[in-house]
Amino acid sequence: MVRKHKIAFIFLDEIHHIYHFISIAVELSKKNQVHILTYPAKHELLYKLLANLSGGNVRVEKMQTYIFRAFTDKLKNRKLPRKGFWMKKHQNYILNNFDAVVFSDYYHHYLLKARGNNTKPKFIIFQHGMPGRGYSYNKEILDFDFQLLYSSFHVEQLKQKKLLVKDWTVSGYPKLDVVKNHNATPIFYNGKTTVLYNPHFDPELSSWYLMGLDVLEYFYHSKKYNLIFAPHINLFNKLGGDDASQILQKYYNSESIHIDLGSEKSVDMTYLNSADIYLGDVSSQVFEFIINPRPCIFLNPQEIKYKGKISYRFWQTGKVVNKIEKLPKALKKARKSFQEKYRKIQESMTAENFYLEEGSTASQRAATAITEYLDKKL
Fold first, then answer.
1. Dist. CA 235–CA 244, nearest whole Å
2. How many domains does the chain have?
3. Contacts of residue 308, Cβ cutoff 8 Å, sequence gap at least 6
4. Do 25 and 167 belong together in one domain?
């Protein structure tokens, strides 16, 4: 079979990005030549998901950064290569050998500059998660030739902010295709209500830095609740992130607290599906949580003036509290307030967020749209 187009997916990130592009890569590989360009590592999850999705046609290329940069990265205990140097080293290979390059984040600058006025390869963006905080509306999204979007609501938001490029499509949320057959074992067996605490990593927005240890201490003493502490994977794993050593051993030893600072389960919706109540701040994971509507509580220790701001849209789905002293009352009233006020909001928001279409998956629609776009443009 002659494959139409040669397409590269760039993967230089933590594992949570994989779920957002892997199924599209597999679908594209049925008619196109697809490569995942990445850094040297074992990549257990990447290979596992390719196997689960029958992605044998997808070629994984492990490409080293500059030798000196690899040495300094190792000295500084960097798990990932610095993207700019990696891109610069491989820009000629990427630009001269592929019809399209797919990104899940904004690290395309070296390639964009090197491409210059050339019209090939096409740059395609698929964001790694449902649009939530302000980062979702980064003006650099205009650098891309083709945008893959999650819903008509996503389209309207980009239009309003003048961030919609000429060529785009609405395909839905492919991560759900990857995790749909995932059966997770329960985290607790004690019959208590389980709360998931999922703080973001951004110090300016996250509840962790001002309130996180107080949250752990509250649940350590609680007789009513279990706690899953599964923060954004970058909170402790990213260079420059916070120091996990401040999490006391007693929290790890508690029978009613489960701590996961960055395993596969922290990104594959295991904990989202296991919890009865979501406790967080600005992570867009809450949009995945409310697909199955349940109570949410949001922590706002910075006392941000959030009402009416699209980047805090998720805070419409639950109670917002500014002080740790108000958390017990919010938890106590969570179920009642959910039924009286927030259930309908969550259901409406989910309908806005996730485009669905009978007879096809989001991954299939995205792959078809990319192939048709390249057929037209190339």
1. 9
2. 2
3. none
4. yes
